[in-house]
Amino acid sequence: METEKRNLQRTMTSRHITMMALGGAIGAGLFKGSSSAIDMAGPAVILAYLIGGIILLFIMQGLAEMAVANSGARTFRDLVQSILGKYPAYFLDWIYWKMWVLNITAESIVAAIFIQYWLPGYPIWMLALAVSVLVTAVNLLSVKVFAETEYWLALIKITVIIVFIMAGILLLLVTFRDHAAVGFSNLTDNGGFFPNGSKGLITAMLVVIYSYGGTEIIGVTLAETKNPEKVVPKAVRSTLIRIISFYIIPFFIIVSLIPWNEVNGVPESPFVMVFQMIGIPGADHIMNAVVLLAIISSMNSGLYGSSRVLYTQAEDGRIPKIFSRLSKKKVPVYAILMCTSALYIGVLISLFAGSKTFDFLMGSLGYTVLFIWLIIAFAHLKSRKQQNGKPSAYAVKWFPYTTWAAIIALLMILIGIIFTTSVIVTLITLCIYIFITLTYVAKKRRHKI
């Protein structure tokens, strides 16, 4: 281990961080959370993901503009602190870290569920442990190895989603052998397009926001990205188009092919169910493998994001310096090991809760993504004042209207979620936020912030 201070390497390119953003966002929220979202909203889940995608577009544009204006920034805190002050930056850093450690824990459980498709005799905790060790090992290698691994994992799942879309369109429109074209009657049958009304749509937004969460990981790659002022806007533009396409179109296919009320409660992903309908021998196994790779890819991104937050906190003296130490490969190994501890805590929880562990964690994660996006949006609103009203080389069109639209939509979703989500999930999340705030107050009194 290198004891002297060294910097992270700028070895990630545009293709790396674009795929990383996709890797973070196309994971358990899409492949496993899709069942919950469809059960809540029915076919209207398509509208929920469209609304979420538009909000995401506005948030990410603001993030890109701030990154270009502050090319020396390393993470979110550097972008936000100079604009909103120390407390919002501190709060953002720690809820972002909390989001990712809970996310990788939830996704290790989901990965185990999909492995059980082949190994039903093995308990969830044992399979989750095996996945956790694998992801830890990849992250302890060099940043370049991690980025390449993430690139190819993300590329595989994107390719298969494209194949899924093509196969789904075929099943919807074409009659062949014993299969009759399904058509689009499932969109309005079984209670109509809004079977659970507006309440179902609002409730599903928690899953939607959770599913899209992870795209903003671009804001954590700034210290290890070549020419971030050029790369980040490009990555934002290309990523958003793909994410919205890879969510809305697949969901349209799923709720058109399968009655919405038959999706939830089935052990396999709706994606696996659709591939089973194709009738190709082993298609369900192939899709299950791809879903598994997708989830591991998302865990990979999550461990990267959470460890870099710890690294910069330690580098600035906010937590013990040991977490800023780098290996010979210039990887923050102690920060990574600290974050992976959450994975093994998740393994212990799954001993008692089993596959329900994912549902318990997903609600709190949805709240966290909401607050992360709100803080980024408010920072973007104020960022132009620091530039005397002059935008940077990359400027958001229709500012500040798009940012205000995102903030208003997020606040409405937050109010709706508070009234429709489990009280226990809300209280646990609130306790975590209060704890983070109290640690800030305590550190401020000791003049450590």
From TrEMBL:
Keywords: Amino-acid transport, Membrane, Transmembrane, Transmembrane helix, Transport. It holds the Pfam family AA_permease. It is a multi-pass membrane protein. The chain crosses the membrane at residues 46-68, 100-119, 125-147, 154-176, 201-223, 244-261, 273-296, 331-354, 360-378, 398-418, 424-442. One of its GO terms (biological process) is amino acid transport. GO terms for cellular component: plasma membrane. It comes from the Bacteria. Residues 16-446 form the Amino acid permease/ SLC12A domain. InterPro entries: AA-permease/SLC12A_dom (IPR004841), Amino_acid_permease_CS (IPR004840). It is found in: Cell membrane. This is Amino acid permease. It comes from Peribacillus muralis.
